[in-house]
From TrEMBL:
Cofactor(s) it depends on: pyridoxal 5'-phosphate
PANTHER family: PTHR42735, SPHINGOSINE-1-PHOSPHATE LYASE 1
Keywords: Aminotransferase, Lyase, Pyridoxal phosphate, Transferase
Organism: Micromonospora sonchi
Pfam families: Pyridoxal_deC (PF00282)
InterPro entries tied to this protein: GrpII_AminoAcid_Decarb, PyrdxlP-dep_de-COase, PyrdxlP-dep_Trfase, PyrdxlP-dep_Trfase_major, PyrdxlP-dep_Trfase_small
GO molecular function, one term: transaminase activity
Entry's family note: Belongs to the group II decarboxylase family. Sphingosine-1-phosphate lyase subfamily.
Keyword ATP-binding: no
Residue ranges of the TM segments: none
Protein name as annotated: Aspartate aminotransferase family protein
Length: 491
């Protein structure tokens, strides 16, 4: 039976008005993308009119195809302008130490990183089993790139206090098969800037490319420096840095679907391309993973950058930094909480120092009060933590959040820590990923209330505690199975 009320392909088309109403109704289930109450996933500058502008620009170019820049020069022009802007912000362009910088517009940070790894791998075809060296704090997208491209990942452990790798350890991890050394500016999890200068130096000494993952906060770091915040060198000003990624759909406040991958020169970029003429169809040359791609995100990003302008970003960064400092003070002001790292970018990361204050319960208590934060599991000696991505829209709300945080902490203490039923705890500790049957997962998901309800679950502490108790391979299997259960077609 087709559910005519919600089928994506109803027997008879429904009116534009009705279908838009349906989408708005569905959107009502989502976390709030605007208003500074969601500290992950979304980046809100809180600038009136910007959404409307970006949507109009998107609509202008939605049907333009990035497959062929000669057929659609509008897209080529906007892409080249975006790459130029990103290179400028990150220390490249005329009159800098990277005057020959080039780049590509990709669909997101993950695609930028996959392509940085691909370019590095394909520049060294003589290496049979290529390897990439990253700090353990590097974004998971490097692991995805390694997985997709059959490259080995060498993760360098972090110093538990500085949350950075020791440069000597990075140097030692560079084997003869290494094609790329990467680092973050800043890391997503903790917002910490890696020692880029020293890492680039050891990479260069070994004759290996060095990628700076500035996807999250590289854009803002440049502006923070201009505001007088101490920011170590992390961009093309650093000798040995061969490529940098920066997500325009993060702190450049563009709608989703735009990142830039920069290379110091065109020679370094060349192995990123894929060209194919050995078939009877059109000759194909792709700088990025997608072939057909919409001009919508590119036009929207172009409109966003031009409308906000350099002075706009400086002002948004000033507001964001004030919010970061106020949030850090709020954390310091709550007994039993501490900052995992002193903020040096636009992340505030906190943890609990009190066994009676369960961080996952705190997250739920904040959710119940309308504040959505991101829990991070304990990992390799690092404690559980809560991540806050801070954007300009948070600035007017920091006092309110401070009150909510104190109340949520009191609420979490009153509720007490999650105690998993012993059989569940034993299961998490002993189960191998192979032993996890679809039926077991379905029962588990049902018991945890994860399926068959509209909207995000309100109480996630038990699920997070279960994942936290499980070894990494089991965590991964559980995640795949849980999400696989959610992703079922509706008929
Ligand atoms: C967000 C992020 C990525 C991945 O970007 P997506 O746009 O989500 O694909 C990579 N690296 C860092 C540091 C990030 O913050």
């Amino acid at each position: 039976m087709i559910d005519e009320d919600r089928a994506a392909l109803p027997a008879h088309g429904v009116s534009a008005e009705r279908v838009l109403g349906e989408i708005r109704e569905l959107r009502g289930l989502d976390r709030p993308t605007h208003g500074g109450r969601l500290f992950a996933y979304v980046y809100d500058p809180g600038v009136a009119g910007l959404d409307e502008l970006a949507a109009a620009a998107y609509a202008e170019s939605a049907h333009v195809n990035g497959l062929d820049p000669t057929a659609f020069p509008s897209l080529l022009a906007m892409e080249n302008a975006l790459v130029g802007a990103a290179a400028r912000v990150l220390g490249g362009g005329p009159g800098t130490s990277a005057p020959e910088a080039v780049g590509s517009v990709t669909s997101g940070g993950t695609e930028s990183l996959i392509l940085a790894v691909k370019a590095a791998r394909d520049a060294r075809p003589e290496i049979d089993a290529p390897r990439v060296v990253v700090p353990a704090s590097a974004h998971a997208a490097f692991a995805k790139a390694a997985h997709y491209l059959r490259v080995e990942l060498d993760a360098v452990p972090l110093d538990p206090v500085t949350l950075r790798p020791a440069v000597a350890d990075v140097a030692a991890a560079i084997r003869p098969e290494a094609v790329l050394v990467a680092c973050s500016a800043p890391s997503y999890a903790h917002g910490v800037v890696d020692p880029v200068e020293q890492i680039a130096q050891v990479a260069a000494a070994a004759g290996v490319r060095c990628h700076v993952d500035a996807c999250f906060g590289g854009w803002t770091l440049s502006y923070l420096r201009r505001l007088g915040v101490p920011v170590p060198a992390f961009d093309f000003a650093v000798p040995g840095v061969t490529s940098i990624s920066v997500d325009l759909h993060k702190y450049a406040y563009a709608p989703k679907g735009v990142s830039v991958l920069l290379h110091r020169d065109a020679g370094l970029r060349a192995p990123q391309y894929f060209a194919y003429a050995d078939w009877p169809g059109y000759t194909m040359v792709n700088p990025v993973i997608s072939s057909t791609r919409s001009g919508g995100p590119i036009a929207a990003a172009y409109a966003t950058l031009r409308h906000l302008g350099d002075d706009g970003y400086l002002e948004l960064t000033r507001r964001t930094w004030a919010a970061v400092r106020a949030l850090a003070d709020a954390v310091r002001g709550v007994d039993g909480l501490r900052l995992v790292a002193e903020p040096e970018s636009t992340v505030v990361c906190l943890t609990s120092t009190d066994p009676d204050l369960d961080l996952f319960v705190l997250v739920d208590e904040l959710t119940a009060r309308g504040w959505h934060t991101q829990p991070q599991l304990a990992y390799a000696g690092l404690p559980r933590s809560v991540h806050l991505t801070v954007t300009a829209a948070v600035a007017p709300r920091v006092a309110e959040f401070g009150t909510a945080l104190a109340e949520a902490a009191a609420g979490a203490r009153a509720t007490g820590p999650v105690v998993l039923p012993p059989e569940l705890l034993a299961l998490a500790g002993s189960l191998t990923p192979q032993a996890l049957t679809p039926q077991l997962v379905a029962e588990l998901a049902d018991g945890l209330g994860l399926v068959g309800r509209p909207g995000p679950p309100d109480r996630m502490a038990v699920v997070n505690t279960l994942l936290d108790a499980a070894p990494v391979p089991l965590r991964e299997r559980l995640l795949v199975e849980f999400v696989g259960l959610l992703q079922r077609p509706t008929w």
